[in-house]
Each structure stands twice: as structure tokens, then as C-alpha cells.
Queue: 2 jobs
Job 1
Amino acid sequence: MANTILVGAQWGDEGKGKIIDVLTERADIVVRTQGGNNAGHTVFIGKQKYVLHLVPSGILRKRKTCVIGNGVVIDPLGLVEEIDGLRKLGIKTDGNLFISETAHLVFPYHREMDAQREILKGKNKIGTTKRGIGPAYGDKAARTGLRVVDLVNSSRFETLLRQKIKENNEILKAFGAQPLSFQNVHAAYRAAGDRLKPFVTNTVVLLHEAMQQQKEILFEGAQGTFLDIDHGTYPFVTSSNTTAGGACTGSGVPPHRMDRVVGVMKAYTTRVGEGPLPSESAEIADLLHAMGREFGATTGRARRCGWFDAVATRQATMVNGIDELAITNIDGLDSLETIKACVGYRVGTTRYDYVPNDIEALSKCQPVYVEFPGWQTATDKARRWKELPAKARSYLKAIAELTGARLAIASVGPAREQTIFV
Ligand code: GDP
Ligand code: IMO
Ligand code: MG
């Protein structure tokens, strides 16, 4: 029995959705434990593309149980839309999707506040997904949030929402934004609450009963290590614990029941949104964007791109306790003559082997690179480790070694079959 936590080892969009889909074949339950619909996890099954935001990517495989855990913040309207979208594509959620009673809710005032704060920050903006994530987790921490249990209790929900709208309208007015209509929000959320009610349960009990029956659980991380509220490049982060510990607090499954941690990373680096990215490179960004790659799954924004950053991924191994690595998007580097990897940061004469916590210091960091010869051969048809070009194998072994974990999966394309177990 192996319970597996899967985390992003970089700044999100590492290809977690694809790897979750692959690993789900051997799991019984897939759980999302943090984040909200700021996440966009892409899975291809044949030619059909699916982008999951709140529903665990495991839903795409038949007879798997999927859980939205207590640590997630749920926009009920977004979730209903996602469930309906899946149904249209022939994916069933009735009877196999469960939603935690204690997950917090995202409201229109959170989204509006998210947008207003970004405007106020001007050039210092975070570049959020504007899904209301920060304000929703803010309410949770301030103990002023509404939860799924409140949504499915109609009289309590009405009283609590009325108060929240009144209070938030004052703040929105101060921002010069439009106040919200209680009637409109209430009607839409009540309808969504009625739709979601059959899915709502005590997911902590569900997961513990499943563990008693020796079921295997896969914890689907969202975002990435350097977007973690504690361990990321604060304040250019999201508002949840995206690192391995978040899987425990966000599900109610204790640390000693976790058996392994898989870290997903691209063979290069990307980041969407603002904040430092020491190994950012126009060369690789131009290459990938010209191939039509690296556009955000949630907002469609062009992702910033850079060389592989081993300073960051080594720290990710440390913070998450990564045992095994899944390296994705190897095929993105196929055409390059020379490939760089960042092995240190430098500011003047000071050298850093870790990611400095002072954001000003980090934004001044210059990458120290080592170079690898490119393989200049298409890798997308490789299905076994030995079928990869020798230079690609050397590069992958080197970046896994620099990261400090065992290379377990190499991905050479978005499809299920483009996956090599090492
Ligand atoms: P996630 O948020 O970590 O699930 O990642 P996203 O889905 O936001 O972004 C990863 C992108 O890379 C998606 O478009 C995937 O289909 C794609 N992808 C994942 N692995 C590979 C790979 O090995 N090669 C290629 N070409 N695309 C990949
Ligand atoms: P997945 O799960 C990449 C980024 C935003 C912004 C910062 C804060 O698909 O990897 P937020 O809306 O959370 O307040 O935005 O975090 N961000 C992501 N970047 N992948 C994601 O999720 C992200 N979720 C949030 O771009 O920089
Ligand atoms: Mg994504």
C-alpha cells in the first residue's frame, strides 16, 4: 500500500495533471488538498484535451474515487461549470466525486478584491489568476470565511452571506468598485449549493475508511514549491501550502501514512505571473512560444521561460522530501545545440547555493550555468529509457542528480503513452 504525494517542484505547470493521470492507473483515490480554480491541469486522452481546475485529474479514469479536500477553496459556480463540462465530454462524476464539508468557499467579492488589490499594487502586482484565491484564504485565516457546510444549510447560508455582502460592499465602494447584489449572489450560490449537495461529505472519514481497506491514495498537488505561501518567493506566491505538508493538512491524512513524494519538474523552467525567475531566458522563451507551447491552462497568459534551475529544484527536494522525480517536456529541448542548467546564483561576489529569502536579493541573482550538449533528435517517439538519445539521458541524469532525487519518470509528450518509466 503506497500513499503518494505529488507536488510541483518549480513554479507550477510542471505537467502534474499528465503525471497524475498516468499514476492514477495504479491508485484508488485521487485527492486535491489545496489551491482552487487558479490551478489548470492538462490531460490528453487520445486527441481529447481536458483541463481540470478543481476536480482531481483522476476523474478521467473509470472507477476511481476523487476527493476535493478540506484545504481547497471552492468557487461553487466554477465547480458546477466544471462538472457540467466534464459530463458533456462523457466523464461521470456522480458517485465518484466527493467534496469536503469543511472546504472554504470563494465568492464574487473575493474575485473583485483580488482584482482591485492588483490594480492598487500597480507595477508591483503579483500577476494573480484573479480567481479570488488570496482573499478567500485570507477570510479562512481570519476565521470569517464561509464553508461548504454553510452552503448546504440554506437558512444559515442566507444569514451569513447577507452579512458578508454588506461588509464587503463597504470595502468595494472604498475601492471605487461596483457593490454586489445580495439577491443575485444568493440565488446563484443557492442553485450551485443544491447541485453540489449530493457530493458533499466528511472526506476525512471517507479517506480513513479507505485506508483501513488498504486503498491507495494519490495526493494531487496544485501550483508549485516556489508558489508556496511559506516556502515560495513571497509575496509572489499563491495563498496555500503547495508543498508536501499541505497534502496532510488539506486532507486530514497524517504524515506517517504518507509513503512517498513524487516531484514533477519540467526539463526547463517556467513561471506565469510576476516575481523573480533567475534563469529566465529570451532564447528558450522564443523557442517554446514559437512552437505554440507554454501558454497558461487557466488564464491563457504566455508563461515566462528559462533554463533548468537546479538551485530551486534542490531546495524543492529538501522542503518536500521528494523521493522520486518525474521530468516532463523533455521534447521541448529537442532542437537545441547547447542546453544550460543553473547550478548557483551570484550577486556581485556573493554566491548562493539556495534560494535567498529576501526577494530583493533574489531579484538581483545572476545564474551560474553549466552547459550540456543538445541531442538535436526528436524524443517524442521514445517509449523506453534506452530509446532516448544518449545525450538526453546524460542531461536528465545530471539534472536529477543536481536535484537530489531518483529519476523515476521521463515524459516526452503530453499523451499518456509518451511516458517512460526509468
Ligand atoms: P500542471 O498545472 O502542472 O498540470 O501543468 P499544465 O497542464 O498547466 O501545463 C503543462 C503543459 O505541458 C500541458 O499543456 C501539458 O499537456 C504539457 N505536457 C506535459 N508533459 C509534457 C511533455 O512531456 N511534453 C510536452 N510536449 N508537453 C507536455
Ligand atoms: P497549477 O496547479 C502556475 C500563480 C499566478 C500568480 C500567483 C498567485 O496549474 O500549476 P493566485 O491566483 O494563486 O493568487 O496567483 O500564483 N499561479 C500559478 N502558476 N500554475 C498554477 O497552478 C498557478 N496557480 C497560481 O500566476 O503568479
Ligand atoms: Mg497548470
Job 2
Amino acid sequence: MAEEALIVVDVQNDFCPGGALAVEGGDEVVPLINDLIARFDHVVLTQDWHPAGHSSFASSHPGKSPFQTIGMPYGEQTLWPDHCVQGTPGAAFHEALEWTKAELVIRKGFRKGIDSYSAFFENDHTTPTGLAGYLRERGITRLTFAGLATDFCVAFSALDARQLDFEATVELRACRGIDLGGSLAIMTQRMRDAGVVLV
Ligand code: VGL
Ligand code: ZN
């Protein structure tokens, strides 16, 4: 029988109000995600986990500001405020998130020279995080995504899931987006076109 897992994406303090890269209403997803966690047999969390001075931080590029883009060897990269620095309170899960049941925490973005939005691949779209192998070895083929941010880490993860032949559902009411230059509408459409079920 097809096994299912819930993938909880980046429900961390820096993506919640008051955080370094706050997503509007980011904390509102926590009770909804706690309900989902209670309903799923298997739960995986992702955690954005950057070293200080990470190349996705605008502060690492003299003259650049957050939300500008630059060319990196692996393609275009949006620059962000410093966020989710390893071991800082901003990188911790939201204190109300009931994460104890989680079987795996996938940390991402820990290589200084490359960002990683997706739970499956870094932003070069080729360096794997190991999550696909972990899920496949366990016979898990159906994935439900929730968390932050809809148009970045959630969307990149769901799109890669489809590319890797997993079934993918996104619980939109348990997600909040950044919406940079129309990215929310663009990524929502890309998910639909890829066969991601949006509920
Ligand atoms: C994210 C921007 C930078 C996310 C992470 O979790 O969507 N966005 N790092
Ligand atoms: Zn990040």
C-alpha cells in the first residue's frame, strides 16, 4: 500500500512575524499544521539552516540589497536578509509547532556557496538532499506539503516531488507566501501545471 508523509517546510522563527525574513501571517499556519501532524503517520520537517555569511544573504554582496537578484554559477539567485543562521533563535522552529513526532529533519542551505529552497535539491537543481532516497526506501510515495513560504520553499519542494514521481498535495491554507514580483501567482500556476494537487 502507498505510504504517505507530511512534509512541514521551514516553520521557523525567522519566517514568522518579528523574524528576519518574516512572511505575512507566517505564524497563523502553526495550529493548522499541528492538526495535520496529528493526522499523519509519518512527518518530516525541513529547516532552513545557513552558515553566517551565506551567499544568499545580500550582506555577503557589497552594494546589493535584499530582494535584488544576482547571477550565481548555478543560475539566478534572489538575495535575502540574513536569516536562519545555524544555531540562532531565528533558525529554531516556532515554539508552538508540535514537532516531536517528526521522524526526520532535513536541513538545507548549509553550503555557503549555494542556496537550497527545495527539500529535494539545492538551487542548482542537481545536488540532492537525500530526501528522495529516504522516502523511496521507506515506500512513501504520497506527499503533502505545508509551511513557509508558499512561493519559494514549499513550491520548489512540491515541483521537485512531481519531477521525482511522488504524488504531491499542497495544503494552501497551511502555507503563507512572500510574493516577490508576482511570484505567488507564478508558482501556484507552475504547481498546477506540474500536477500538484492544491487544496
Ligand atoms: C525561504 C527564502 C530564503 C523559504 C528560505 O523557506 O521559502 N525563502 N530561504
Ligand atoms: Zn534561506
